[in-house]
Amino acid sequence: MTAETLLSEPDRLEQWTTAPLLAGRAAVVTGAARGIGLEIATVFARHGARVLIVDLSEDDAQSAANTITAAGGVANGVGADVANESDVSKVVQTCLDTFGALDVVVNNAGIIRDATMRKMTLDDFRAVLEVNLTGTWLMTKAAGAMMREQRSGAIVNMSSISGKVGLVGQTNYSAAKAGIVGLTKASAKELAPHQVRVNAIQPGLILTPMTENMREDIREAKLKEIPLGRIGRPSEVAAVALFLASPLSSYVTATVTEVTGGRHA
């Protein structure tokens, strides 16, 4: 390895950090009409990506896209059920038809149906696995098939700290989010020979409408478990998604990044 080769990588890193990190890229973000998904889509658009927002409600997806467009970004919205294979195919085709490419996918869509195992119904167990795990698999399969042909692409799957430690009342959610870790690592190894990267994020306690409405005593108990001593912001999850989607992480695949403030480390 020559001195010139050694110098070239830092030079490129400097270029990437001073320019939009996703300029010219087309990205799909599922479950992006609100919350963490919308923040990821917004940050991607700020960094030059053309973003297709996917949500169960097409009106909500398009409304979110309009917000990004009004702020100077490029976005469109589409309604789809990520647990439905034909809907997932429609999402991929819509991205290709709208933006002419598909370079990044963030599998963020998810639902919760919390209850203790004694009280949880089979329907609620299956519903969470269908959306959170099967939906992630379907989108990874469809996007991966296209990305391997172009020999480039980045897929970011949203797991959860619940999938690492298991939380009371979340046997369905913990199982699905743990499954996403296995799916991420296996699909990353299948797609790596085709220069497609797959990584996962495990958020902890993040400031969303759900946590804002949390009972004060429960929130205080959870805060005591966080070494950094505060709830995370959606923008802090979005920043990690941006890194994993961008050239800054060009040698990163099959990883799971915890965004938890140190909780359950």
TrEMBL record:
Q: Per the UniProt entry, what are the Gene Ontology biological process annotations, in alphabetical order?
A: fatty acid elongation
Organism's domain of life? Bacteria
The residues forming the signal peptide are: none
Q: Which SUPFAM superfamilies match?
A: NAD(P)-binding Rossmann-fold domains
Q: Which UniProt keywords apply?
A: Oxidoreductase
All copies of the Ketoreductase domain together span 25-209
Q: Name one GO molecular function term.
A: oxidoreductase activity, acting on the CH-OH group of donors, NAD or NADP as acceptor
InterPro entries the record matches: KR_dom, NAD(P)-bd_dom_sf, SDR_fam
The record's listing under Pfam families reads: adh_short_C2
Q: Into which family does the record put it?
A: Belongs to the short-chain dehydrogenases/reductases (SDR) family.
User: What protein name does the entry list?
Assistant: 3-oxoacyl-[acyl-carrier-protein] reductase
Q: Which gene encodes it?
A: fabG
